[in-house]
Design a protein that fits this description.
Blueprint: H1 7-16, E1 17-28, E2 33-39, E3 45-55, E4 58-60, E5 63-64, E6 70-76, E7 81-82, E8 88-89, E9 96-98, E10 116-122, E11 127-134, E12 140-151
Parallel strand pairs: 3-9
Antiparallel strand pairs: 1-12, 2-11, 3-10, 3-12, 4-5, 6-7, 6-8, 6-11
Length: 164
């Protein structure tokens, strides 16, 4: 059976929302604790549906120790809510997770990409606050990408992205 595409419905939906990604890369100093933020643009709210991320586990210039030492805590300053209670090790929830450190001893095997569900609406002009900490004795990198839909209708507290 042939699937019929309703182009009018597709065009109508494109007028209200569209796929969007917010990527961020963070270089984390050895044994550091700090924070950064990712600003949601003013053209609409962002309905985040998935998160992906990768990180390195270097313990020296040419040594990949393989053990995660990076933790993060996410907060939303638009709704003024923490999204995690405390710092969470990134190895517990990120995919593809630990990245290859080409030419470094202890390289991990090939990583598969699998988006993790992360359902939250960030308001336009708000920030995703990212607190991070590393217990590793060498600089490492954390890359995150928040994937979802940009919503041109802006929501007020109490409304839902699923509302008709």
């Amino acid at each position: 059976m042939e699937e019929i595409i309703d182009f009018d419905a597709l065009i109508q939906r494109a007028e209200t929302d569209f796929p969007f990604w917010y990527p961020i890369g963070i270089d984390i100093a050895a044994n550091a604790r700090n924070q950064t933020s990712l600003q949601i643009s003013s053209d609409g709210d962002f309905w985040c549906q998935y998160i992906v991320g990768q990180y390195t586990t270097l313990t020296a210039a040419a040594t990949d120790g393989g053990a995660n030492g990076i933790s993060i805590k996410l907060s939303d300053n638009g709704w003024n809510v923490p999204l995690f209670n405390s710092l969470v090790p990134v190895s517990l929830f990120l995919s593809p997770g630990r990245t290859r450190s080409s030419g470094v001893a202890g390289d991990p095997t090939h990583q598969l990409f699998f988006p993790i569900e992360f359902d939250h609406v960030f308001l336009a002009k708000s920030n995703i606050e990212i607190e991070y900490a590393s217990s590793l004795n060498y600089e490492n990198r954390l890359d995150l990408c928040f994937m979802g839909r940009k919503i041109r209708k802006q929501f007020k507290q109490g409304e839902s992205a699923n509302a008709n």
